[in-house]
Amino acid sequence: MIPLLSLSLFSFFLRSSVAYVWPSPQLDALESIRWDQADRFGGLAGFILPCDFYTFGDGTGRANTADWIRTAYHDMATHDVEDGTGGLDASIRFSEEQQRGENVGNGFQNTVEVFVSQATRYVSIADLVALGLITSVETCGGPIIPFRGGRIDAGEPNKPGVPEPQEDLDAHVASFARQGFTQTEMIGLVACGHSFGGVAHADFPQSVPELHDSNNTESVQHFDTTFGHFDNNVATEYMSGTTQNPLVVGANDTTNSDKRIFGSDGNVTMKSFADSPDTFASTCATLLARMVDTVPSGVQLTEVIEPLPIKPSRVELILDGDALKLSGFVRLFNQSDDASRSVAIQLEDHSGKQSEKFPMPADRISETLGGRVTSAWYAFNKSDSGPPALSINPADGVTKMRFIVNGKTEDQGGIGFAVHDSVVFSTSSCTTSNNPLKGRFDVAVRNGVNPARVYLEQEVRDDVDRIVVKEIDLTPSTQSVAAGSSYSFWSIEVTDFESYTIGAEIEGTKISTWDSHSIFELSPCTPKRRSALFLS
Ligand code: HEM
Ligand SMILES: *[C@@H]1O[C@H](CO)[C@@H](O)[C@H](O)[C@H]1NC(C)=O
Ligand SMILES: *[C@@H]1O[C@H](CO)[C@@H](O)[C@H](O)[C@H]1NC(C)=O
Ligand SMILES: *[C@@H]1O[C@H](CO)[C@@H](O)[C@H](O)[C@H]1NC(C)=O
Ligand SMILES: *[C@@H]1O[C@H](CO)[C@@H](O)[C@H](O)[C@H]1NC(C)=O
Ligand SMILES: *[C@@H]1O[C@H](CO)[C@@H](O)[C@H](O)[C@H]1NC(C)=O
């Protein structure tokens, strides 16, 4: 028999050694939004910085972070461990749930609007609810919380089930048990959540009066003195008897739920939190991860998303006349700005030949975890004069990239970073008419690939805001040979303003390009430009 200790060590090493191989579209997307929290190309931290930032209205005293954390809890709290229903599935976006007494306030709608706008085919609204909590805690002083992706957005509201402050202790213990948490875990979760925000006069006028405070125009009586920051003040202030937490010292004892919950084990848990900021932080990391991973039965979450140390990003390959142009970035995770670092890219073509090593200029530094970690980004052949692209002979094509950082080859243990050159957007795509707006998309298909279908992909929303991908088929063009016979065109005329990515079905497998194109980016079709592109 394997002793328990070595078994758990084994699974530790097993888990920490599992790094996925790039590219993997869903994991890449989840990894980016999870780890590039404050990058100019996206990341949720832009919505919450500074940490007491409040987007909706001019008021002070509220914070988006607090709304996001409360939203995650109220979305999850419908879970029923017995029948597997409810859990973190973005059902809180339904007005039927928001109108329930257990979900008083406009913080849910404010939050949901942001996450609906950020969802993609790879990152569900529910994953964003989880990431909203994680990004808030990590950006605003809290611990790193393990994140898994793959949540599925509910198609309808869940049963009610969020605890309310006027309920008694037994009801709260029973409610958390139904959600899957013990009494001790309940104390922890409430303290972790109530490190942020407070109770608003607008929502609980009997508990919180108008405060007449120019620094708190929304009249939110905060749970602790640092309402936009993760720390154990909620516990130290409670233990020292100085707390102003309205659910502890409220005039009406019926609604003092934090007082009943925090004291329910003789203050043992709260004392441990007050005594040690580290104990509080690590307990919250574990409990909040379990909270956001509480999903309806049947939903399969991914592994914990670890950062890729070397990650290509926004890689785009297009056919531009008689050349393939490769552009993009590579991110060196958790690396600071370093003028002496050298980064280069080397390409492999279809015959297995390696290109020369092209130097990659430094592009930018991004921050994550509230500035505790920076990442250094390098661009593919960025030049001030021309487009940031490497030129590739279409006949040779490209199959792989490798990066060379300070002389060391980074290629995912020899696998390389795969690039698909079989189906690419062509810059011969152009607008045929301005009024009404019409444009032709040309997709260049590598000769010999023989796809069953080539199509434009458009992300659309169903009637409950879930992203679905609509496919619009292209047909092979009559003027079909391009780029020295290496590629043929498939084309379609479109008349709408959407952005499209390109997809194809090749030998029963669907492939999809990362980059999106819209009719607005196309230049007018001129006979000169068109004829120059067809080299038959
Ligand atoms: C018995 C369990 C709980 C009760 C009775 C409770 C009650 C409340 C109440 C009455 C408010 C004020 C809402 C408003 O003013 O509109 C509130 C706010 C909040 N709750 Fe809880 N809560 C509980 C558990 C939790 C948990 C487990 C979390 C997260 C882990 C959490 C996170 C928050 C946050 C962040 C706020 C501040 C919202 C803001 O300022 O906008 N709560 N809670
Ligand atoms: C509001 O905050 C500022 C800066 O922290 C402080 O100087 C001022 O005294 C506060 N005003 C009130 C009414 O508390
Ligand atoms: C205290 O709060 C409870 C629950 O909201 C309410 O029913 C009761 O009337 C309140 N008591 C007083 C004295 O306001
Ligand atoms: C818990 O601590 C608070 C604050 O010091 C105190 O008022 C309360 O009586 C304590 N409760 C228990 C059950 O010890
Ligand atoms: C960043 O790198 C340092 C060592 O340079 C390491 O201690 C730390 O854990 C890393 N942080 C993350 C989030 O990977
Ligand atoms: C890099 O980009 C410039 C400007 O577009 C271009 O002239 C040059 O040929 C490119 N270098 C390579 C190696 O593709």
Structure description:
There is one protein chain. The chain is of the alpha+beta class. The chain has 3 domains: 4-292, Peroxidase, domain 1 (Orthogonal Bundle), CATH 1.10.520; 310-418, Immunoglobulin-like (Sandwich), CATH 2.60.40; 423-535, Immunoglobulin-like (Sandwich). It is 25% helix and 24% strand. The chain has helices at residues 4-17, 25-35, 64-76, 95-98, 107-118, 125-139, 169-179, 183-193, 233-240, 257-262, 268-275, 277-292, 527-533; strands spanning 198-200, 220-222, 310-320, 323-332, 343-348, 358-359, 362-368, 373-379, 390-392, 400-405, 408-410, 417-418, 423-426, 430-434, 437-446, 453-461, 467-473, 475-482, 487-494, 499-506, 509-512, 517-518, 523-524. The strands form 4 sheets. Strands 3, 4, 7, 8, 9, 13, 14, 15, 18, 19 and 23 form an 11-stranded mixed beta sheet that branches. Strands 5, 6, 10, 11 and 12 form a 5-stranded antiparallel beta sheet that branches. The structure holds protoporphyrin IX containing FE and 2-acetamido-2-deoxy-beta-D-glucopyranose (5 copies). The site of one 2-acetamido-2-deoxy-beta-D-glucopyranose has 3 residues, from loops. One of its GO terms (molecular function) is heme binding. One of its GO terms (biological process) is hydrogen peroxide catabolic process. It is an enzyme of class 1 (oxidoreductase). This is Peroxidase. Destroys radicals which are normally produced within the cells and which are toxic to biological systems.
